[in-house]
Amino acid sequence: MSGGDLVIERPEGLYCPPGDFYIDPWRPVDRAVITHAHGDHARMGHAHYLASVPSEGVLRARLGADITLQTLGYGESIEHHGVKLSLHPAGHVLGSAQVRLENGGQVWVASGDYFVSGPGDDNATCAPFEPVRCDCFITESTFGLPIYRWCPQREVFDDINAWWRGNAEAGRASLLMGYSFGKAQRILAGVDAGIGPIVVHGAVETLNRAYREAGVALPPTLNVMDVTDKALLKRALVVAPPSVHGSAWVRRFGDPSDAFASGWMQLRGARRRRGVDRGFVLSDHADWPGLQRAIAATGAQRVIVTHGYEAVMVRWLQEQGLQAGAFHTEYDDERHDAQEPATADAAMADAPDEVDAPEGAGMPDEADAADAEEGAE
Fold first, then answer.
1. What's the confidence (pLDDT) of residue 246?
2. pLDDT by residue (tens digit) across 128-160?
3. 322: pLDDT confidence band, cut at 50, 70 and 90?
4. Which segments of the chain belong to CATH 3.40.50.10710?
């Protein structure tokens, strides 16, 4: 890091020295700019929050209605201590934003987490990713290995619908687990609600309300605590967070068929580790080609990687002639809850046999694997 950098590492989080504020800090600070409301990026205890307008409902639902929150519309800018700041869509979850900073002739963009869709494959529950030109791009790398390549989400939802329909015809509930904020709503927006009733866990319904209040179209859902008709439950799609797996909460559905929706389902052993009947590859993060497209679209000659497979991504960027490095953050890249491999070599060992990296894709060697393990959470 040089003395003129717009973002540096501090124990509290990523800090903007000229603006005297932090971006997604993990320790309490006076001023925090929040990219999105997932718990590893939006934490309690900050004196003042700044976030996008669409994220307000979810942030207040998760952090408390009384937080001191200032909001900005996408593309709207403010100036603080000479730093011009604006927020731009990240395509990850409702309200997710990239943070653009301009000061001293430099433009930096901190991505937070983001999803880059293919043609006609947008995440319908939030504004799509918007490339922002900059000198330095701070990027995530949650799925920053060549083995992660998402198929069109319509194909994924066709598979989910077929699985649910078959279970309903057999009089068996379909328990589909996904994170209660973001993934659950994306599932709800994508499935065929005509197959049967949709029942949700209370944690999911709380976030559903915030999405509906923000104008996101979701199908009607029933809170499981309000359902007394056992016959209805046998035809239902049940959307719940991963924490319910194996719990007493599931027993009310008899013997459901269970499944997990996650990008980690790309890996051969993921379904086995989860102990579920089905795994659906559905992620709110960019895959390997998506990361490459997003970085290229910024035009940045310098790239800093925050979390995920940092070492592999940094090496690939350097091979492309870019100045690249990494910030060591406390962001949780979903491996803990998903029980998925933190090292590059472990992920490659778990990859399907038919998944190969294209020539020049920057596959990890043993040194990369060691570096990735050291930086992984």
1. 86
2. 999 999 999 999 999 999 999 999 999 999 999
3. very high
4. 153-280
* CATH fold for the domain made of 153-280: Rossmann fold (3.40.50)
The predicted-structure confidence for 112-136, as pLDDT tens digits, reads as follows 999 998 766 778 999 999 999 999 9
Tell me the pLDDT tens digit for each residue of 341-351. 445 444 444 45
String of DSSP letters for 156-217: HHHHHHHHHHHHHHTT--EEEE--TTTHHHHHHHHS-TTSS-EEE-HHHHHHHHHHHHTT--
Q: What is the pLDDT of residue 347?
A: 46
Read off φ and ψ for residue 47, nearest 5 degrees.
Answer: -75, -35
Angle at CA 148, nearest 5°, toward 211 and 286? 35
Backbone angles phi, psi at 113, to 5 degrees: -100, 145
Homologous superfamily of domain range 8-149+284-375: Ribonuclease Z/Hydroxyacylglutathione hydrolase-like (3.60.15.10)
Show the tokens assigned to 151: 């198929």
Residue with tokens 């924490």: 243
Look up the pTM and report it: 0.88
Give the strand pairing for 31-33 and 21-23: parallel
The total number of residues shown for the chain amounts to 377
In this prediction, residue 327 carries a pLDDT of 96
Residues in contact with 297: Cβ distance below 8 Å, sequence separation at least 6, in sequence order: 131
Distance CA 93, CA 89 (A): 10
5 to each of 15, 104, 205, 259, how far by Cα in Å? 10, 10, 42, 45
- CATH 3.60.15.10 residue ranges of the chain are 8-149+284-375
Token readout for 122 is 């947008």
